[in-house]
Amino acid sequence: MASRLFRAVIMGPPGSGKGTISDRIAQSFGLKHLSSGDFLRDSIAANTEAGVMAKAYIEKGLLVPDHVMTHVLLPRLELMSGHSWLLDGFPRTLAQATALDSVCQLDMAIILNIPFETLKERLSERWVHPASGRVYNVEFNPPRVKGVDDISGEPLIQNDDDKPEAVLSKLRRYKDIAKPVMDFYKKKDILYSFSGTDTDKIWPYISSLLSTKLPAVQASAQTSH
Ligand code: G5P
User: TM spans, by residue (predicted)?
Assistant: First the structure.
């Protein structure tokens, strides 16, 4: 029998550290890190119909409509059917949560609660290397050389949706939309919430939670052979 797979989502407002924590989880626990933002940026770069539609919303700091998101994301998940994964940035709406629920059963939903003021600061200090998606922060994880990617030596840029107007409009809408999604996972008894201002302080709690869940998954895989 195949190993039991582990599937989790990580949610939180823009800039809450979903990407940073997902990278740590992927490294420490061997899950595939799937990012809705990266999938969208791939679609934009490939100039697909969905990518062209998504670009217009992202540039205005708006959520991409649910039907476009599910069209981009669900086929990617199908390709991952044999893997354990952590999905970063999806679902963001109840409609997305329901669509995800219809194709797979989640083991865990992680939610990051970070104060509004902290998020505004972080996002305005964020720089990315567009070709690889590597993310830097002027204070938290600066590049070795200012404005330059550590690995490729290429210039870093600031995404349009990290500009102040886009950040503010995203944060304002986040709470109303996220609440029903949290309730959805709370009812299923798989919601784990983490609050704080520092990723480094939140990370040990997330890591220890996963250590209690992932060995159980692996143990059940061993006994099921
Ligand atoms: P994305 O790419 O999913 P966002 O806006 O949700 O974008 P974002 O901004 O990438 O999420 P994050 O992943 O939560 O934030 O956070 P991060 O990148 O790890 O950290 C943010 C910054 O803070 C970085 O510079 C990091 O180094 C720094 N940092 C982390 N921890 C700390 C700390 O403790 N201290 C300090 N000082 N700094 C720290 O989606 C992009 C767009 O695509 C669309 C939306 O338009 C979205 O805006 N989209 C969707 N639309 C509809 N439905 C969906 N499911 C969608 N998914 C994406």
Answer: none
Asked if 73 and 90 touch (Cβ cutoff 8 Å), the reply is: yes
- What is the DSSP code (8-state) at residue 89? S
- Quote the CA–CA distance of 45 and 59 in Å, as a whole number: 14
161, 58 Cβ separation under 8 angstroms: yes
* 19 CA → ligand 1 middle, Å: 6
The angle formed by the CA atoms of residues 113, 172 and 49, to the nearest 5 degrees, is 100
64 lines ligand 1 (CB under 6 A): yes
Rounded Cα–Cα distance for residues 195 and 189 (Å): 18
State CA 221 to chain mean position distance.
27
pLDDT at 168 (0 to 100) = 79
CA distance 71 to 65: 10
Whether residue 93 is predicted with pLDDT greater than 70 in this model: the reply is: yes
Atom number of ligand 1 nearest to Cα 122: 23
3-state helix, strand, coil in the chain (%, to 5): 50, 15, 30
Residue 117 Cβ < 6 Å to ligand 1: no
Residue 89's pLDDT band (cuts 50, 70, 90): very high
Please give the Cα distance from 160 to 79 (Å, whole number).
30
Question: In the predicted model, what is the mean pLDDT of the chain?
Answer: 88
Helices (H), 82-198: 94-103, 116-124, 164-187
